[in-house]
Amino acid sequence: MPRVELRGYGKARTPLGTLGRLFRYFKHCRIILISALLSILVYVAATIGASYCMKPLVNLLEASGLSPNEAFAKYAALLLGLAALYVLSALTNYLLNRLMLESCTVIMRHLRTELFSKMQKLPVSYFDSNTNGSLMSYYTNDIEATNELLQHSITQMLISVTSLAGTIAMMLILSMKLFAIMVVLGAIVVVVVRTTTKISGRNYRAQQKHAAAVNGYIEEMIEGQKDIKVFTHEKQVLDDFSVINDQLCQVSTKATTVTSILGPILNNLSHMFYAITCALGVLLLSGEEAGGVLIAFLQYIRTFADRVSQISEQFNSIMLALAGAERIFAVLDTPPEVDQGTVTLEKCGGDYFWVKADGTRTPLRGDVRFYDVDFSYVPEKPVLKDLSLYAKPGQKIAFVGSTGAGKTTITNLINRFYDVQAGTITYDGVDVRDIKKDDLRRSLGMVLQDTHLFTGTVMENIRYGRLDASDEDCIRAAKIANAHYFISHLPQGYDTVLYSDGANLSQGQRQLLAIARAAVSEAPVLILDEATSSIDTRTEKLIEKGLDGLMRGRTVFVIAHRLSTVRHSDAILVLEQGQVIERGSHDDLLRQQGKYYQLYTNMIELS
Ligand SMILES: Nc1ncnc2c1ncn2[C@@H]1O[C@H](COP(=O)(O)OP(=O)(O)O)[C@@H](O)[C@H]1O
Ligand SMILES: [Mg+2]
Asked: 367-386: per-residue pLDDT in tens?
């Protein structure tokens, strides 16, 4: 779904672009949007109309020659009309809030889905280089800010702008003369505000500059205290300090004086504005409707001033909130994990086949080779250097080496969480980059170094390895992983619900479940990354036996800290700083008396 939409939304960099892109989400609720816009129009028309009623009301007061009955009927009609307008404005306001609430709920659902489905498509490197907290904040803070933006800020802005336009129109209709006066006064206000902000801005900048100088001086003198004392410069330092401190004092006084005088004046400008127009209106307007026109006009001046200040406030909050939407769009614009692989995996009975684009089928054998592979997560820090290795079909290959040697990185490259920067990795003679990622990963049963258990029952967690596995398959896998015993002793056995990453299990039990998950996947190649690090050696031996039965004739990669775990491997690769320094069986390596021998005989320890 997002692929098409993403292209439609395009890139947004400017606030206006982001806003436009956000508005396009209303396509999911066009009718609601149109109803909301209509509500805004009716609401604004009703409020403006209510103000306009002042004119006939006042005129009625001044009118002469009406009998009491006539006057009363007119009053009643006007007041009823006024009441109707207020009721209408209240109703439309309520309707508008409801509509915006509804459309925003729909839009947020779309945005959340789009964000979440995008995250499923992002490469592992994205998650490695962003903390969970910052990723979560897209769903919490940024979505919330965007919701607030659409639901309140933008709606209010639309109301203010429409109302401002309507108010100006009504003022023009009421009296061009008064409007001209207002424009002149308004221009004066704008000029005054601009000059004063310029003056006070200049003063404040000067104040900041002097404050920075004083602080810098203090900091330097504190750091250099010993030197000052050694050279007995205390008096000199104090004199220098007094000078810049006095300057700061003068500049600050000037800045605050200007603000304290101008602040209240500016704050009360709209009132002065009001009073002046009122006075001029009395002088300028004539005719029998003058009173009504003036009163209605004055009402509009209030609305005008309110709307202008609302718009400037809303403008700032919209700009702030747009940052949240922009962050969300940045995620949506992040390039997804690319997959140009064409070779697919096919399962026929118990056998697996690679199917090339031209339809040729070759059986999966499990032959994995690295040719001169270079890799680094960050450019300046190479992790694997010119690494070559091979695993023949059916071999059990072990990697040993200290923490950070690059063992996990090798597995990250086999399953293409990351791609090599130089060299190639082949899988049964096919470059792994030519294999469809899903199929490549389906062919690998992996126990990750830091595996995750999801909220759900034990059975569901094991079935995560292969969703169509039957309960019997899962139990068989649990037996292979030697997890059956402890699971049977859980309060509800296989139906026990695990919470927050299996917090109600021990670390070792979590690892047993992870192994069961890999076992149930029936993948033809198995990768165990420190899968038994928290499991006692006796249980580990039992698991090894079970897995050996399962993986007979299949390739297995084992990464382990404990050398006893890897003893029976066909080949043990000793890694150091991203390079294979020794390779051979346990006995070969002992005979070589190299690093492995030293490790094994406890001459050195793995760190
Ligand atoms: N996502 C990552 N981003 C940057 N550097 C990483 C990342 N993962 C691992 N590294 C670095 O790569 C090196 C090898 O890590 P790793 O393969 O996990 O080691 P091992 O599994 O042998 O303990 C380490 O120096 C580690 O700091
Ligand atoms: Mg590791």
From this structure: 999 999 999 999 889 999 99
